């Protein structure tokens, strides 16, 4: 009637993994299509401006004829990475004074005492606020695209036109020192460079010391026109210690000293008549950072950085009427300090105008009037066509010069718009484009009028002068209006979504989910002998499980719930636990595992709160409120000792449990001893690594070196070795004399024991606690499954338990201090055991840390829920079939549970693609979910092969 | 035995619900409009103080075993049940993620007392320590939809449906909390309380409907 069992099994052997591979393929295709449509943003034009470019001398743009003349001879740019606005601005500008404020007093004093030549700006960056994107935006004057975030690790050279390119082409010599990202972006643009590696976040000083060594000597030399010094200490201090920390304050104080030195040197060099008369010093941040030291998103703290400009020679007092004096405040000494606001987008255009080089082709910024006015050169070098009008006062001369610059600026931006609309597949909306064109022609039409008035008045009659006085500002306003409107348009509409590709990807995803769901239902009916009793009890459970998944998935439609995803997942997990308790009370059998699970939920919940507030950078558990309260009671030193020792003690506890489980689970002698030895060695290494990092013991150098770098590598090596052995055992190992249950147990036990030490050491000191939570949760769920099997006498896995498993995994992701943005990656984990950056090695470690506890471990340990604990059939052969079916079913369910929220994320991203937070929140969430989905599919494939 | 147990008529059930509603209304009137948002501790305290005597009195009067148990005894059971139920409710809330800071302690206590009045106290007054009845009440959540199949003990609806309504309402009421609307009522436990009260009111209405339908069915069957 039916084919023989062995034959059927063989065909199933291949059928299910193939199905999973098919799912993986469909999901990959869907994600690929969607990503191509969604993250494809801006067509980069590889056109370059050149010195000979001229606005056509037609009737419309007759106002200006050539690129602006240079106003600055030498430019010193000091970039302080992740410079928050409140590091520079006086604390009186903020409602509350914090310890990290007012640590750069030299800038504040200059801004207060030399109002006409020094100025503090609040510079507003555009997200994504990662260093590479910012450097690119600063030099090209464009808007960064999101896809570049992915390139941030291996920075590619910039192909678009940029300031560096223009500098080199126009014979300016550039010296760079500091962050080696510059070298990656501009491999051939510097005359001289002193790059230092930037990726080791733990290292606060190497880059800075290198810059300090070369900065002052270089200032005295004559072999450069533009000097760039990029300090990284503040960024790294923020990443490791947070803003409110002693290292951060020490860094800022160090910078204050350096800046004093730089300013003194420049002052001494810029004697009137000297070669370096027209110097300009810019001290600027590329982006801000949050109090935890993160950046990448679009929140005010990350976007607001500062720019300080100072020219050693003082421009005439008329500059004060250009500078905005709307936000002035007394500083600590009672002097008045004024602060202006500028867009970082305008930086490239302004610098080009100051240095007298052609604006980068793709720059869409506006020459900032205040920064332009601060440079003395813009006030005196009046050698332009306006010399006919000698009777102008300083301000009018400057304004007419600025108007000319803006005229060129507008022409250049318009040229870019036209070129862009012509070449790019999807340009700007045509009505917006029409509006922009109207603004442009209005401005240029005015311009011919205004420039004529400027120069025609030989007689200089009073009314003509008056007329001109109002015409010029009007003209500037018209240009500004055009430029700002276009900047706004490009900000809102730049991201070029390929809606077709996105739609097809989305459709494919939805289809695959529907097919998955149908297959699951079918699978269920095949596996399940359909008797009435089981049927009636399984429907409410399925619908409850389905409701949980759908609620969680639907919550992704709102940005608030995405931010609170960890809490939402925990809420649902707790709900399912409480329902479980409820159910068992109705049945009248209350198991202890229900209570333990509830208690575990409380722990998990506090863990998530701590993890999500990210107040748990490696050693600083003390920041947590409750712990610090306990610390106050016991005294600081003993508390710190306790905190250093506690992870090691809990690690010993974890090791004890793991060893005990292993010795029970594995019955094969060789494997058992191998697993025990490997685990023991790994845990000793982990403990040794942590002990060597504490300050409690004074170690000899070699011991410390071994603990710091060798022992983690040892752990990774053991992990790799056991992975190989488990694979070999799966392929070559004896299968026949073992019962299926034992076989699966052995397989999953060695699989888990090869992964867990690596993940544990990457998690850092929170690891043992997380491991305990993991194991307790797994124990509770497995116990529930056993009870469920015993009671229903069915061997099928309960869907609610699978959901709980997946919700627990999500909780663990947040509990371990991750979250779905790129600054939520724990970069420090990538450097455990290694000091130097290597893209593959560190990338691998980082992904194991990110997905280890939330994807790898849960999926590989899924067979535990699928196990048949209470044998209802006597035949072993039948049991084997049942177990294999169960495993497939559980893996299938897990895949579906991951796919449904991922689909909803994709839908949400599609809906919200014009949302303010799309790059800060939705896109990272999408990237994490897409990677998580593909990883889940892949792991499910592997697991179904491995456990088959 | 169901035969010995005095059946509660639909009118009695309606009267009981009206009394409970009156307790809530009185608290609302005393606290004033919007007091739950401006001063949650005070409003919750008033709610508990007004509702507690009403609920205990009403459900002690409706006690199941009239013969063996006096009104005073039932009321005492309710009084004991009040803190026990509050403890359970508070535990559940904390498991689900209710904040536990010192500034939340008082409101959490009052809120859990109120939840206890909605859920635990009525059952404690009516059933005492009868395990089967408790299980029946609990199981109504499982089979509330197929009540056509479980025609026994329709009186349990008067307790179980509002109780489940309150719990479900509180659960749903927690959902707006993470939203970034920055409204004062998103604070713990204000919206949860709103949800619980709303769920309780809906539960009362539904229980009345269920009892009425059930009585009619029983009467039709006996005819």
Automatic annotation (TrEMBL), chain A:
It is found in: Endoplasmic reticulum membrane. One of its GO terms (molecular function) is mannose-ethanolamine phosphotransferase activity. It holds the Pfam family Phosphodiest. It comes from the Eukaryota. The chain crosses the membrane at residues 16-35, 499-521, 542-562, 568-586, 595-613, 633-658, 670-691, 714-732, 744-763, 769-784, 796-815, 851-870, 891-914, 926-947. InterPro entries: Alkaline_phosphatase_core_sf, Phosphodiest/P_Trfase, PIG-O_N, PIGO/GPI13. Keywords: Endoplasmic reticulum, Glycoprotein, GPI-anchor biosynthesis, Membrane, Transferase, Transmembrane, Transmembrane helix. It is a multi-pass membrane protein. Pathway: Glycolipid biosynthesis; glycosylphosphatidylinositol-anchor biosynthesis. One of its GO terms (biological process) is GPI anchor biosynthetic process. One of its GO terms (cellular component) is endoplasmic reticulum membrane. PANTHER family: GPI ETHANOLAMINE PHOSPHATE TRANSFERASE 3, PHOSPHATIDYLINOSITOL GLYCAN. Belongs to the PIGG/PIGN/PIGO family. PIGO subfamily. This is GPI ethanolamine phosphate transferase 3. It comes from Digitaria exilis.
Automatic annotation (TrEMBL), chain B:
Pathway: Glycolipid biosynthesis; glycosylphosphatidylinositol-anchor biosynthesis. It holds the Pfam family PIG-F. It is found in: Endoplasmic reticulum membrane. Keywords: Endoplasmic reticulum, GPI-anchor biosynthesis, Membrane, Transmembrane, Transmembrane helix. It is a multi-pass membrane protein. It comes from the Eukaryota. InterPro entries: GPI_biosynthesis_protein_Pig-F. The chain crosses the membrane at residues 43-62, 74-97, 109-129, 157-174, 194-213. One of its GO terms (cellular component) is endoplasmic reticulum membrane. GO terms for biological process: GPI anchor biosynthetic process. This is Phosphatidylinositol-glycan biosynthesis class F protein.
């Amino acid at each position: 009637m039916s084919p023989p069992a062995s034959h059927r099994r063989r065909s199933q052997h291949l059928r299910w993994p193939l199905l999973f591979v098919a799912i993986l393929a469909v999901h990959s295709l869907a994600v690929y299509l969607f990503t191509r449509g969604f993250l494809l943003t801006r067509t980069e034009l590889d056109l370059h401006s050149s010195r000979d470019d001229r606005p056509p001398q037609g009737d419309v743009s007759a106002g200006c004829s050539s690129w602006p003349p240079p106003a600055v001879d030498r430019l010193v740019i000091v970039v302080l990475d992740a410079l928050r606005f409140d590091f520079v601005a006086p604390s009186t500008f903020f409602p509350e004074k914090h310890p990290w404020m007012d640590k750069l007093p030299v800038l504040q004093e200059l801004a207060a005492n030399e109002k006409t030549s020094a100025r503090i700006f609040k510079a507003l960056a555009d997200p994504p606020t990662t260093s590479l994107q910012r450097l690119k935006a600063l030099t090209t004057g464009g808007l960064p695209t999101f896809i570049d975030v992915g390139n941030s690790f291996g920075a590619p050279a910039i192909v678009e036109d940029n300031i560096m390119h223009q500098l080199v082409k126009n014979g300016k010599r550039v010296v760079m020192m500091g962050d080696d990202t510059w070298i990656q972006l501009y491999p051939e643009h510097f005359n001289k460079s002193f790059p230092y590696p930037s990726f080791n976040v733990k290292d606060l000083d190497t880059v800075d010391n290198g810059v300090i060594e070369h900065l002052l000597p270089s200032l005295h030399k004559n072999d450069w026109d533009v000097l760039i010094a990029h300090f990284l200490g503040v960024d790294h201090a923020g990443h490791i210690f947070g803003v409110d920390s002693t290292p951060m304050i020490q860094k800022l104080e160090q910078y204050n000293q350096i800046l004093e030195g730089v300013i003194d040197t420049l002052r001494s060099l810029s004697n009137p008549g000297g070669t370096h008369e027209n110097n300009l010093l810019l001290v600027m941040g590329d982006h801000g950072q949050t109090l935890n030291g993160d950046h990448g998103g679009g929140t005010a703290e990350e976007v607001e950085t500062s720019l300080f400009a100072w020219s050693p020679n003082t421009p005439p007092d008329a500059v004060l009427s250009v500078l905005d004096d709307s936000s002035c405040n007394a500083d600590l000494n009672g002097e008045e300090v004024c602060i202006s606001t500028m867009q970082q987008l305008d930086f490239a255009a302004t610098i080009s105008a100051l240095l007298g080089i052609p604006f980068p082709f793709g720059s869409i910024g506006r020459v900032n009037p205040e920064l332009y006015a601060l440079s003395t050169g813009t006030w005196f070098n009046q050698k332009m066509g306006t010399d006919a009008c000698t009777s102008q006062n300083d301000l009018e001369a400057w304004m007419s010069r600025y108007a000319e610059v803006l005229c060129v600026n507008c022409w250049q931006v318009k040229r870019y718009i036209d070129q862009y609309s012509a070449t790019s597949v999807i340009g700007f909306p045509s009505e917006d484009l029409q509006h922009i064109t109207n603004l442009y022609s209005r401005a240029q039409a005015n311009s011919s009028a205004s420039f004529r008035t400027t120069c025609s008045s030989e007689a200089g009659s009073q009314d003509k002068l008056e007329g001109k006085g109002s015409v010029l500002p009007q003209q500037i306003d018209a240009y500004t209006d055009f430029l700002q409107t276009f900047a706004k348009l490009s900000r809102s509409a730049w991201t070029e979504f390929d809606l077709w590709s996105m739609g097809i990807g989305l459709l494919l995803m939805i289809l695959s989910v529907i097919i998955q769901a149908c297959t699951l239902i079918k699978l269920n009916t095949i596996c399940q002998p359909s008797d009435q009793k089981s049927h009636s009890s399984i429907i409410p459970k399925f619908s409850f499980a389905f409701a949980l998944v759908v609620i969680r998935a639907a919550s992704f439609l709102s940005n608030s719930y995405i931010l609170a995803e960890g809490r939402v997942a925990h809420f649902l997990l707790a709900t399912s636990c409480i329902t479980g308790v409820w159910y068992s009370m109705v049945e009248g059998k209350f198991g202890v595992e229900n209570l333990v699970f509830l208690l575990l939920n409380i722990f998990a919940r506090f863990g998530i709160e701590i993890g999500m507030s990210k107040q748990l950078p490696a050693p600083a558990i003390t920041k947590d409120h409750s712990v610090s309260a306990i610390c106050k009671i016991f005294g600081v030193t003993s508390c710190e000792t306790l905190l250093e020792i506690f992870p090691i003690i809990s690690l010993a506890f974890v090791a004890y449990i793991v060893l005990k489980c292993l010795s029970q689970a594995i019955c094969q002698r060789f494997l058992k001893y191998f697993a025990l030895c490997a685990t023991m060695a790994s845990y000793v290494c982990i403990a040794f690594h942590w002990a060597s990092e504490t300050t409690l013991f004074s170690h000899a150098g070699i011991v410390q070196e071994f603990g710091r770098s060798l022992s983690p590598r040892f752990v990774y090596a053991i992990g790799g070795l056991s992975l190989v052995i488990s694979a070999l055992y799966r392929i070559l190992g004896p299968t026949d004399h073992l019962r299926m249950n034992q076989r699966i147990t052995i397989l999953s036990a060695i699989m888990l024991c090869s992964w867990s030490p690596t993940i544990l050491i990457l998690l850092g000191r929170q690891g043992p606690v997380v491991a305990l939570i993991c194991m307790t949760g797994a124990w509770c769920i497995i116990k529930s499954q056993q009870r469920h099997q015993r009671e229903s006498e069915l061997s099928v896995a309960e869907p609610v338990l699978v959901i709980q498993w997946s919700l627990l995994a999500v909780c663990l992701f947040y509990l371990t201090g991750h979250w779905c943005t790129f600054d939520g990656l724990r970069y420090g984990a990538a450097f455990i055991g290694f000091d130097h950056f290597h893209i593959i090695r560190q990338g691998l470690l980082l992904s194991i840390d990110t997905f280890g506890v939330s994807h790898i471990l849960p999926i590989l340990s899924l067979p535990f829920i699928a196990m048949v604990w209470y044998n209802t059939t006597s035949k072993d052969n039948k049991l084997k079939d049942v177990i294999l079916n169960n495993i497939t079913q559980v893996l299938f369910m897990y895949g579906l549970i991951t796919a449904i929220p991922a689909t909803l994320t994709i839908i949400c991203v599609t809906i919200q693609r014009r949302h303010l937070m799309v790059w800060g929140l939705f896109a990272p969430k999408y990237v994490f979910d897409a990677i998580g989905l593909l990883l889940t599919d892949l792991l499910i494939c592997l697991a179904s092969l491995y456990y088959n | 035995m169901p035969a010995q147990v005095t059946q509660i008529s639909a009118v009695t059930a309606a009267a009981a619900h009206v009394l409970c509603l009156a307790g809530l209304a009185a608290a609302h009137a005393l606290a004033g409009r919007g007091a739950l948002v401006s001063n949650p501790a005070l409003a919750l305290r008033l709610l508990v103080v007004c509702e507690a005597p009403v609920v205990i009195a009403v459900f002690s009067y409706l006690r199941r075993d009239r013969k063996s148990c006096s009104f005073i005894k039932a009321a005492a059971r309710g009084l004991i049940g009040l803190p026990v139920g509050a403890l359970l409710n508070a535990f559940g809330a904390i498991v689900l993620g209710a904040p536990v800071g010192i500034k939340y302690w008082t409101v959490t206590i009052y809120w859990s007392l109120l939840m206890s009045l909605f859920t635990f106290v009525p059952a404690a007054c009516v059933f005492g320590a009868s395990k089967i009845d408790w299980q029946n009440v609990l199981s109504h959540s499982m089979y509330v939809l197929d009540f056509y199949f479980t025609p026994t003990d329709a009186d349990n609806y008067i307790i179980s449906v509002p109780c489940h309504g309150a719990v479900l309402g509180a659960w749903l009421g927690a959902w707006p909390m993470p939203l970034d609307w920055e409204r004062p009522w998103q604070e713990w436990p204000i919206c949860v309380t709103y949800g619980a009260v709303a769920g309780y009111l809906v539960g009362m209405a539904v229980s009345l409907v269920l009892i009425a339908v059930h009585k009619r069915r029983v009467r039709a069957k006996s005819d």
